[in-house]
Write a structure and sequence with these properties.
Structural class: alpha/beta
Number of helices: 11
Strand content: 15-25%
Strand order of the largest sheet: 1-2-4-3-5-6-7-8
Largest sheet: 8 strands, mixed
Oligomer: single chain
Helix content: 40-55%
Shape: globular
Length: about 290
């Protein structure tokens, strides 16, 4: 897959569809690699008449890692006594750097989870570069909404095992907790997904720095009031990683946005819901 020089680092990316079609850039979440936007989903979106781009954020997958910055002090960041290695605004700038590298003056932006936060920040910081915004299973940064459930938090904060097999097992366990109860994945699928992610470039240390960026970037609610691009906010009613209140708060903050609450959807993108998710994205783009 190709790499782009963007914002002083290298971003691994992939594309689908006609390069002459309007571009849609997909931004993935905390510690997640671009392959979490599965090929079938990207192809379905491309068939709607778009040039689809997915990429690895900094500190994830095959893009530049920032291990020289060390482990963040997450408790200190929460308390306001320690700095984060970087912020969501830096990830938004990375995305704009990708736009520049690919020759996009503007693009439709779709973000999931932390990627939704980055997409929101991009619309705030670079409104002239965003055609439409789709924020999926994300939140505003207001700590009173979008909370993680105790069960999900307990699973996700377990120490990272040493061996490949143990890390794959932990990922499968995490997927079971955070997945969509209305659209349960098979054991075979979860294990294949966990194995592919590990072997391609799972990077727990980078995920910690991304988490620090989320914690340190604060509440975007007031600035979201100024977002003028057509926006769809999509969230599952069974999300234990980011409670649906985060999606509702996002939609309430962005003027004229559309809120779609999906029954039975958790914190993933199950294949049976791809047509509904793609339809929501297309509605946002049509308004642009």
């Amino acid at each position: 897959m190709p790499r782009a020089q963007a914002n002083g680092l290298e971003l691994e990316y992939d594309t689908f569809g006609d390069p002459a079609a309007p571009p849609i850039v997909l931004v993935m979440g905390l510690g997640a690699q671009m392959i979490t936007w599965e090929e079938g989903f990207c192809e379905l979106l491309a068939r709607q008449g778009f040039h689809v781009v997915r990429f690895d954020n900094r500190d994830a997958g095959l893009s530049t890692w920032f291990d020289e910055l060390g482990a963040p002090d997450l408790s200190g960041i929460v308390a306001g006594t320690a700095p984060a290695p970087y912020l969501l605004s830096d990830l938004a700038n990375d995305t704009v750097g990708l736009f520049d590298a690919l020759g996009f003056a503007k693009a439709h932006v779709v973000g999931a989870s932390m990627g939704g936060m980055v997409a929101q920040q991009l619309a705030i910081d670079h409104p002239d570069r965003v055609l439409s915004l789709t924020s999926i299973m994300s939140t505003t940064g207001d700590r009173s909404v979008g909370q993680v459930s105790p069960a999900a938090l307990a699973t996700l904060t377990k120490p990272v095992p040493e061996t490949r097999e143990e890390q794959i097992e932990l990922s499968v366990a995490n997927y079971r907790v955070t997945g969509s109860p209305g659209y349960p994945a098979t054991e075979e699928y979860l294990r294949r997904k966990a194995t592919r992610n590990y072997d391609r470039g799972r990077h727990p240390a980078g995920m910690q720095r991304q988490a620090a960026a989320v914690m340190a970037s604060g509440d975007r609610t007031e600035r979201l009031h100024d977002v003028q691009v057509p926006t769809v906010v999509l969230h599952g009613d069974s999300d234990v990683m980011i409670d649906v209140s985060g999606g509702k708060a996002t939609a309430a903050a962005i003027p004229d946005s559309e809120l779609v609450v999906v029954p039975g959807m958790g914190h993933d993108l199950p294949e049976p819901l791809w047509p509904e998710i793609v339809a929501a994205v297309v509605r946002a783009t049509a308004r642009a």
